[in-house]
Amino acid sequence: MAPTQPFSSPHVHPSYPSLYLYPLNDTFIPKHISLHNDQRVTIGRDTKKTKTIIPGERNGYFDSKVVSRQHAEIWEDSGKIYIKDVKSSNGTFINGERLSSEGVESEPFELENHDIVQFGIDIIGEDNKTTICHKVEARVTCVFTNEDAHFAALSCWLEGELQKTRQTGTVADSSALSLTNNQPAISLVMA
User: Fold this and answer.
1) Which CATH number is associated with domain 18-160+171-190?
2) Which of 60, 85, 95, 153 is the most buried (most CB within 10 A)?
3) Where is each FHA domain found (predicted)?
4) Has residue 65 got a pLDDT over 50?
């Protein structure tokens, strides 16, 4: 099976720089958030009151009760992508580390490829077993060029194939994939 476009709107040409977020749980679809023209993008929750902000693959909004309406901001500056928590209740975490205390704005944090970003926390029921609301958790890809976008699409496809394998317990027939992005090759052989 060949790699597919990671987004359902392939006719929209990507703009750079962009931040791609690939879900690590089933809380959202992959996101491609454009950061061109020095814009700051809000990460937040759909309020459902006005229905003017609908979570989509090309914005920073999520349908999750653990994400604050104004949770975080992301932006690009001088070839680097940054994030900061803007006084959220349930926190913004990078690679497991919370950026600031509840209700406190964080310092900017530089995002790098393969960072794990988490918005909010899992809310557990009174039985201490059932998850009532899931945190939003994603793998980060910073995209500045067409090569980065191609690598991101392949990574998205590979992650999808690996998830299918985990869910079904079956492995694809002898196939190999090698990905590079100015980093050592990642090689996977499935037998």
Assistant:
1) 2.60.200.20
2) 85
3) 41-99
4) yes
Is 58 in contact with 73 (CB distance < 8 Å)? no
Closest CA to 22 of 146, 143, 148, 160: 160
pTM (2 decimals)? 0.77
For the segment 67-101, what is each residue's pLDDT rounded down to a tens digit? 999 999 999 999 999 999 999 999 999 999 999 99
- 3-class DSSP state of 3: coil
DSSP one-letter string for 128-144: SS-EEEPPEEEEEEEE-
Strands (E), the chain: 18-23, 31-34, 41-45, 61-62, 72-77, 80-85, 92-94, 97-98, 109-111, 116-119, 123-124, 131-133, 136-143, 175-179, 186-190
Report pLDDT digits (tens) over 9-64. Answer: 554 566 889 999 999 988 899 999 999 888 899 999 977 665 667 888 889 999 99
- The shares of helix, strand and coil residues in the chain, as percent rounded to the nearest 5, are 10, 35, 55
